[in-house]
Fold this sequence. Notes:
Blueprint: H1 28-40, H2 59-76, H3 93-102, E1 108-113, H4 116-127, H5 131-148, E2 153-158, H6 159-164, H7 166-177, H8 186-195, H9 216-231, H10 238-294, H11 301-344, H12 351-457, H13 459-598, H14 608-613, H15 617-632, H16 638-644, H17 646-651, H18 655-666
Parallel strand pairs: 1-2
Helix pairs in contact: 1-2, 2-3, 4-5, 5-9, 10-11, 10-12, 11-12, 13-15
Amino acid sequence: MLGHLGYTAPAQLIGADQANLKGHWEARPIARFNDRMLEFSGSNWRDWQPLNRNWHGTPYFNGFVEEGVTILNEVFGNAPMIVLKDPRLCRLTAVWQEILKVSGFSTTVFLPLRHPAEVAASLGARNKIDPAQAQYLWLRYMLDAELGTRKDRRFLFRYADFVHDWRGTLRRAEKRIGAKFPRLNDCVANTVDSFVDQALYRNRASKLASAGDLHPLVAEAHEIFTDWASTGERPGDHQRLDEIDVEFSSFSGRARPLFVVFDHIQEQLNGLESSIVRHKARIDGAGAPGAALASVEGPGIPEIGEATSPQGDDIDRLQIALAELSYDLLGDTEGLRAALAQFAKGEGDASLTKLAKAKFEAEIAQLKNELGSLREHSDKQISEAEGRFERAQKSEADAAAAVEQARSAKAELESRVSVLASELEQKRAETDDIYAERDELKNEVAALKAQVEAAVSNEGSLNAQLARNSDELLTSLNDLVALGNLLRNEEQKCTKLAADRKVFEKRIREQELKLSAARTEIVEIRQQYDTKLQDWRNEQAERKAVKNKLINLRVRHKAVSEEAATYERQLMLADRQLKLNDVNVAVSSRILDEMSKRRVSFPESSSRSKFLANIPSSSMKRWQQFCRILTESGIFDPESYLALHPDVAASGVDPLIHFLTHGLAEGRTLDEGADRCSLR
């Protein structure tokens, strides 16, 4: 149906069959691909045990994703909107979500909900699956599909509601999840109406006796999903569904041994039934000639029928024995199914598995022995029947020839009788026609006589009536002419309307084609627009990044410029100070040189005033200037000098006087880490 509403259906579809007259709508390559993935994980589509997902996130998973992308492209081509249907998708959601993501599709999930009893009836009729296992299959598929698509946009609906009112179902999908159906219109709706056939909705729950006989977990899950379909999904139910999944997985582990026994016995039963069918075919083949002879009528046939009647009795006895054996096998199978149902309801225990297995293996062995004995007896009876058949075969040929001769004579006589009967019927028909014409003529003559007599008696009234009838006839003729003209006009209008309708329908088809082409062109333009918009956004982002970098560079340039200006000012000050220091050093050097040349001796003094008092008056001004330069320029720091030389601090001598009188000559340092001082 979605294929009519704007979505592209897959190529290479699985064809229709008796179970589904309108087709399955699964793509054959995708179905095979899903079967291979299930087989790789140690499962198959009939398995209701929890699926092994340990291979997710491995190189095998990535390999399946790559293969799935290739298959998806082969099946759908470049279609922008596709519809993917396969029940196996319920168990492989993780793989297909990644495949669709890599292929560039956004996912919308439609989950049809059908009653478990309906699914069990369909699987039982088509695949011979036990009703209990069919219910478990329904629960496993629904739980896996719900959990796997919990983060996707999805719509759950009842299959019965869809078949009854598909338009209302689509409206709810549009309202709840914003689903889009591009080609939904009146013309397409008529096509969908012819496709959705309620007569194909088989195995309805309302008509199934097993609809109320559900496993408690199956019934609870179905109730939750039914509420979702009616009122919308409730996130609060997710926890309970997860709990049901855990309980069902635990039940699956406990029930698996019992169902293994059931499957084993079912295989044995199928083998025995196949043997019975082949044996019946042999018996029927041996008895057919006698039955055929008994149905022929003719000379000598009673003797042949008497000769073959014992063979027919043997065949009847063998068939009755085989029917009884089949009934016993079916009874054993029904007993096992009852035991399985009891275990599914929690009324069995682990010992039931071993007991059931031992019991049914013993019964199978007994049935095999009985079947072997029956085969020996039936082979003996068949051999005797074949001998009688060979003896009767010669008489059968003679009888057949006689019967064929009698049939030829009978056919010839029947042909002659048929010809004579046809001629007799023809003569009778001609005679009846003559008598009928004679009676009609008599009646007409009598009527004419009566009319003549009436006319003679009522000539006057007849003339007046004739005149009135003539006027009425003329009026009627005129009305008929007008009506004929009106009818011709209406026919011309109808013809014109029919022609206009054909033209209008042709225009509608042309407009639909143009509309489809325009929609395709719009999609392409939208894609181009999205691509260009993304390119423009990327370019804007790059421009913004470059602009931010430029702003940062400008800020850094400004900071560097300011820092450079600061450094330049500091450099100028340092240079000026350096020059001043050079001058001071030069002056100090000249003073020291002069003192050295004159060999001035400095007496011991503990204070600067006493020291300066011993200096000649001619040199006093220079010494005072020299002391000020050493102190103000920072070349000499009294505190640092005392810290570096504790003996000077202990002597109580003025640090500057000690440096000039003794420290300079001794080469004492002025600060930590500096070179030793000297007079030169």
